[in-house]
Amino acid sequence: MLNTKQPVLRRFWYAVMPVDHLKDGPRPFTLLGEPIVLFLDGKGEPAALEDRCCHRTAKLSKGWCKDGNIVCGYHGWEYDRDGKLVMIPQFPFEQPIPEAKARSFHAQTRYGYVWVALDEPLSDIPDIPEDRTAGYRRIHQFYDKWNTAALRLMENSFDNAHFAFVHKGTFGDINQPKPEKYEIVETDYGFDAETIITIRNPPNAARITGTTDPTTKRHQRNKWFMPFCRRLDMEYPSGIRHIIFNCATPVSDGQIQVVQILFRNDTEADCSTQELIDWDAAIIAEDRDMLESTDPDAIVDMGRKIEKHMPSDRPGMIMRKRLLDLLHSHNEEEQPRQQIA
Questions:
Q1: Which residues contact 230 (CB under 8 A, 6 or more apart)?
Q2: DSSP characters over 94-105
Q3: Could you give the CA distance from residue 30 to residue 251 in angstroms, rounded to a whole number?
Q4: Which residues form the Rieske domain (predicted)?
């Protein structure tokens, strides 16, 4: 599925960068192939415009902020958060400013990140109750660009069959390739998947899982939020909950920005932030190495894909069907299913 060719994907929220990155001025980003510029307005709220000045097409991200507006670094033209041109410094005071705008996009802050929707959103940003629940801490783990497709990462996030093999260097047990339980329930936002699986628990994972036993169990409650977000709640027998939230933000058809945020019901003394970052970094590196070896054109139409389906392929099949239905219901120009790529 070539994300940049699907107009409906512009109608979802995507995490694009930590809001702290905007403290020093405008920053560029490419979302679904669209060059945008992000900056903070006069109230400290994020704003998103096309990264293009109306005058001579210079990138606004080359400029700076002034009183909550963004100033083009080429000739000083100034735009407000809605993209309206409000100042041309070369004009006499009495000369009216032309009616000109840079296109603006929806932007807001959630979980410490700026989220952007290029067109009117179809749904809200996924809710993470633990972000406002006493006893949980939020840890920003990863913010990296991967050379793969957003759908590839989502499929992988619900594929328990790869644990024993891709993650054999961390928690996977190659002798235990099957989970004890795997159930999927479709929802209006995507689906819920529940899994119980036995994993290896090496010494460097003891403070992660809360036990020194050589193996332990994970009770995983995994949620898919269409199109490219997921929430994985891993509960251990120790009572520790290790909750990962990912957004696979499409930069282009072959590249994504991976945002990963962790929520834990313990303290820094129980397990340090650095330990948690390092442990999940090793796991995510194993996923990244494998996913970047796949074809980034993740085909939606299963009729174009030749494979023998395992039970663990069901989440991916549901994703593809739901996304295909979404594309056909909302895209401006419907295409035959066999032509969607």
A1: 154, 157, 158, 222, 223, 224, 245, 246
A2: TSPPP--B--EE
A3: 5
A4: 13-116
CA atoms within 13 A on the CB side of 74: 12
Is residue 217 helix, strand or coil?
A: strand
Q: Quick one: DSSP state of residue 157? A: H
Report the run of H or E that residue 113 belongs to, with start and end.
strand 113-117
What is the Cα–Cα distance from 5 to 34, expressed in whole angstroms? Answer: 12
Looking at the structure, give the CATH architecture of the domain made up of residues 3-117.
3-layer Sandwich (2.102)
Q: What is the pLDDT of residue 135?
A: 97
Residues of the chain falling short of pLDDT 50: 301-302, 304, 306, 308, 333-341
Right CATH number for 129-324 from 3.40.190.10, 1.10.3720.10, 3.40.50.410, 3.90.380.10? Answer: 3.90.380.10
Rounded Cα distance between 263 and 141, Å, is 10
